[in-house]
Amino acid sequence: MFHPFDILTLDNGARLIFTPAREPEGCPLLIH
């Protein structure tokens, strides 16, 4: 549902939201 551009833009914010308890590279779906 998210476009590649949204992922890159939200990657910075989403990483802080989806990886607070997990490792910084614990969500390959958000990184890739």
Features:
elongated
Q: Could you please describe the fold and organization of this structure?
A:
This protein has 32 residues and is mainly alpha-helical. The protein has one domain. The protein has two helices and no strands. The two termini are 14 Å apart. 0% of the residues are buried. The mean pLDDT is 55.
Low-confidence stretches: none
Q: Give the SSE order as H and E letters.
A: HH
Number of strands: 0
**Helicity, in percent?**
55-70%
**Secondary structure category:** mainly alpha
Q: What is the rounded distance between the termini?
A: 14 Å
Task: Output mean pLDDT.
Answer: 55
Tell me, briefly, the overall form. Answer: elongated
User: Total number of helical segments?
Assistant: 2
Q: Proportion of β residues?
A: under 5%
Main β sheet profile? none
List the helices and strands and how they pair.
Blueprint: H1 4-18, H2 28-31
Structure in a nutshell:
The protein has two helices and no strands. With 32 residues, it is mostly helical.
